[in-house]
Design goal:
The protein has one domain: TIM Barrel, CATH 3.20.20. It is built from twelve helices and nine strands. The longest helix has 17 residues.
Amino acid sequence: MNRRLVSKRIDLHCHILPGLDDGPENLDESIRMAEIAWSERIGNIVATPHIRENIFSPELIREKIRVLNEALNKRDIPVEIHYGADVSVRLPTELMRSYTLNGTGYILIEFPYTHITPSMVRERLFAIMTAGLTPILTHPERNPSVIRDPDAFIDLLSEGMYLQLTASSLTGEFGEEVRACASYLLKRRVVDLIATDAHSVRWRPPLIEDAVEAARRIVGEDVAERLVSENPARVLTGGPLG
């Protein structure tokens, strides 16, 4: 495994590219986001623009990443940006392979904000897995269906599916119901990753330290750090999660 990847925290879900989705408006704000991330000991960030209403081409995403990495290098900001996307579960399966994380088989899958149905989990995720991809389900703790009945959601999960919590869910920025749901999923040991899902400098910045501290109180220091360091490193290199 790349030792650089495991030496620092890794943010697997971050809307850091300028002018694509609802992330930063310009390159300067993207750079500032990287500076904030570095202050939180995040050394690697996966750029994950939304792929849903607008289907940005892989070439455009890669070019935006190239420009941002070049700008960070010029400013001696030791953060590296990697390729990825935040992909709607409804995207045709044949298109999804173009949006995996760092060219691995892992892919971030986003459900509708309003609900998750059993058929979405069983049928769509089965199709994604049959296509040879490994789905990472983003921020389930923020979904009303999961908040209402987290155990029913957990019962739908199967081997080969992974869960990613939003850092600020654990610290209460989305409200007490979301925080309680995130904590419960951690207690049930079904969470595999924590990421910032950052969008800007002011609105949901790339902060993770307080979330790691909250996770430590629930699952212990070793597991909490694994969710932001070792497991994300395994995703970026295509290895199995621990």
